Amino acid sequence: MTTATALFHDLTGAAPHGVWSSPGRVNLIGEHTDYNDGFVFPFAIDHRTSVALGLRDDARIRVVSTFDPVPVEVALADLDTLFPARRDEIVEWARYPLGVAWALLRDADVDAVSGVDLAFASDVPVGAGLSSSAAIEGATASALNDVWQLGRDRVALAQAGRLAENDAVGAPTGIMDQMASMLGRADAAIFLDCRSLEADVVDLGFAAAELELVVIDTGVKHAHSTGGYGERRAACERGAEIMGVAALRDLAPADLARAEELMDDVTFRRVRHVVTEDQRVLDTVETLRREGPRAIGHLLDASHASMRDDFEISVPELDLAVDTARAAGAVGARMTGGGFGGAAIALVDQARVAEVGVAVERAFAAAGFAAPHIFTVRPSEGARRDA
Ligand code: GLA
User: Fold this and answer.
1) Does domain 4-202 have CATH number 3.30.230.10?
2) Which of 24, 74, 176, 308 could form a disulfide with 314 if both were Cys (CB 3.0 to 4.6 A apart)?
3) CATH 3.30.70.890 residue spans of the chain
4) What gap in Å lies between CA 317 and CA 114, rounded to an integer?
5) What does the alpha-carbon distance between residue 40 and residue 196 come to, in Å, rounded to a whole number?
6) Are 154 and 383 within 8 A, CB to CB?
7) Is 177 noted as a catalytic residue in this protein?
8) Residue to substitute in 26, 34, 313 for testing ligand 1 pocket (most ligand atoms within 8 angstroms of CB)
């Protein structure tokens, strides 16, 4: 695989000033709760996006990546007119790194920073629900924060990534993915309160329990800048308004009976997913701490059922992956990420990983679905400087 450093050398003929990287993420539980001010429990994975950065002696920014070899170059001073209004002029992938530069420069003096060349290489699968976008944002934010000496902390860098995603890319997402990519730790997940942005690092203990986290990438591509994601978000806002609360986070399961009386069936089911999912995140963290990872399986299963039936963001491939993994002995399984495609996760005994993989492959073939991509991931460290 071409490395970021090799690509940088192809672009400039020189060695980079430094190399930074940031990971993709798997969300263990807590889906579509982040933009409702609720709770999430993701972890950073051992698939990363790297960026090799060099300084320029002009005030321009140029980006290139292994998945699109055509460099994109703009003046730093023009970022402000490009985003958000003229973002369509920029090829889609480049909106992520350029959007992060724009977001960081909104609170900085553009004349005080140097021009940069950025070359990206990634092994985070794109469109799989593993947040390749947060990985590119995290790598960019970390690199620019260092070389521009902005002194932002990790939460501020995650917020810059989210702003890029929302306004430069146009995907109305929450902050979970960027926080996971910035704050990840080996063998641990991040229990995040998306209202206060308080984050607790919680040991997962998968290895000690002889468990593996299996990812089943269905290959069904999704994009959160279109359609369903925004509609779900709007339904949640409608539900909160009807209930007279700032966000669905402010409702407890005991409020659902009243919610059902006040709203139409679809809005109610969207609300019920979010309210019960918040509770499942709290229960998962508590169960993990008290009883270990083998005890959380039923919560993963219940989360999937809620996304399939109430939030209606699953697809047949994801349901089949989850059902088959469970039938083949997984401790628990659910789709992960925004939905409408992407990946499912299954918590599986080390000894049964191969068996689960074969069962899912067979089931996909029998259903006439394209072959899934199945691999294991390890909870890993967040954004860092590598060289
Ligand atoms: C996407 C978004 C996140 C979050 C999830 C759903 O990954 O980027 O902010 O909303 O979907 O939990």
Assistant:
1) yes
2) 308
3) 205-377
4) 47
5) 12
6) yes
7) yes
8) 34
Q: What are the angstrom distances between the C-alpha of 387 and each of 23, 73, 184, 308?
A: 16, 24, 19, 43
Q: In 10 A of CB 149, how many CB atoms?
A: 10
Ligand 1 centroid to Cα of residue 226, in Å, is 13
Contacts for 100 with CB less than 8 Å, ≥ 6 apart: 137, 140, 141, 144, 160, 161, 164, 168
CA of 324 to the centre of ligand 1 (A): 25
For 211-254, the pLDDT digits (tens) are 999 999 999 987 666 679 999 999 999 999 999 999 999 999 99
Ligand 1 interacting residues, C-beta cut-off 6 A: 27, 31-32, 34-35, 173-174, 176-177, 224, 337-338
- What's the rounded Cα separation, in Å, for the pair 338 and 341? 8
What are residue 163's phi and psi, to 5 degrees? -60, -40
Torsion over CA of 160, 165, 166 and 169, rounded to 10 degrees? 130
What is the four-CA torsion angle of 67, 335, 211, 298, rounded to 10 degrees? 170
The model's pTM is: 0.96
In the chain, CATH 3.30.230.10 covers 4-202
